[in-house]
Amino acid sequence: MLNIALPKGRLGDKVYRLFSEMGYDCPSINEDNRKLVFTNERNGVSYLLVKPSDVAIYVEHGAADVGVVGKDVLLEGGNDVYELMDLHLGKCRMAVAAPNDYVDDPNGILRVATKYPNIAKNYYRSLNREIDIIKLNGSIELAPILGLSDVIVDIVETGSTLRENNLKVVTEFLNISARFIANKSSFKFKSEIIEQMLSRLKEAVSHD
Predict the structure, then answer these.
(1) How many CA atoms lie within 13 A of 134 on its CB side?
(2) CA-based Rg of the chain, rounded to a whole angstrom?
(3) Which helix (H) or strand (E) holds 112?
(4) Which of 47, 77, 95, 208: disulfide with 156, CB 3.0–4.6 Å?
C-alpha cells in the first residue's frame, strides 16, 4: 500500500484527476463526506487529504510515502524529503509587491510583510539588503496599505488582488509549481512502486 498525501483544494483536485487517469483511482474520494483517508486496496493506494502547508511534514515523517506540494512550501519549510519531479501544475510566481506610489530607499531598513519569512530572508540576503520581517498569516495586501510594511513578499497568480488594492509587482524572483516528493525511507523500501508511479507521471505530464 502506498500512502499519498494530497493537498486539499484546487491543486489536490487536479493532482487526483492526474493520478486517477494514470490508474491510481479511488472512487470513494468523490463521495460527499468529511473523510480524510481514502483507500483502494485493488490499486494499492491510500490518499490522505491534508492542508497544503502540511503535505511535506506528513511525507518527511513517514505518515505518507509520497505527496504533492508547492515549491514554495518546500523552500519555506526546508523539509528533508526527496523532490522527484516538477508536475508543472499550480504555476505561479513569488514576488515583491508594493503600493503604486512606492519609492525604495536603499539606505533604510526595508519592512517586509509575508507568509514566507524564510524565502523572503533568503531573497534579500542574496541582495545584501537589511530587512525587518513581519510574519502574517493572511490578507498580506493590507500591510503596506495600513503602513505596517513597505513591501510584501507573496505568491502572485494573476495579479488581480494586487491591482484591486492599488499595489504593483516590484519584482518576480521565483517560479512556483507543484512537486512530487517522497519520504526517504519509503523511496528505499518501496522503490519499485514509487519508481513506477514516477515513470507514469513523467509520461502523463509529457503528453500535456
Answers:
(1) 18
(2) 19
(3) strand 110-114
(4) 95
- Residue 192, Cβ density class (10 Å: 0-12 exposed, 13-18 middle, ≥19 buried): exposed
Picking from 53, 75, 165, 67, the residue whose alpha carbon sits closest to that of residue 120 is 75
Residue type (1 letter), 2 = L
Please list the alpha-helical segments (H only) found in 114-159.
117-126, 142-145
Q: Give pLDDT tens digits for 39-83.
A: 888 888 999 999 999 999 999 999 999 999 999 999 999 999 999
Helices (H) and strands (E) in the chain — how many of each? 8, 11
Helix (H) or strand (E) holding 15: helix 10-21
Three-state DSSP at 139 gives coil
Of 87, 187, 102, the C-alpha closest to 152 is 102
Give CA–CA dist 150/163, Å, rounded.
16
Express each pLDDT in 157-197 by its tens digit.
888 889 999 999 999 999 999 999 999 999 999 999 999 99
Kind plus residue range of the DSSP H or E element containing 62: none
pLDDT in tens, 103-148: 998 889 999 999 999 999 999 999 999 999 999 998 899 999 999 9
178-182 and 82-86 as β-strands: parallel, antiparallel, unpaired?
antiparallel
Give the predicted TM-score (pTM) of the model. 0.89
Q: Return the SS3 of 99.
A: strand
C-alpha span between 115 and 135 (Å, rounded): 6
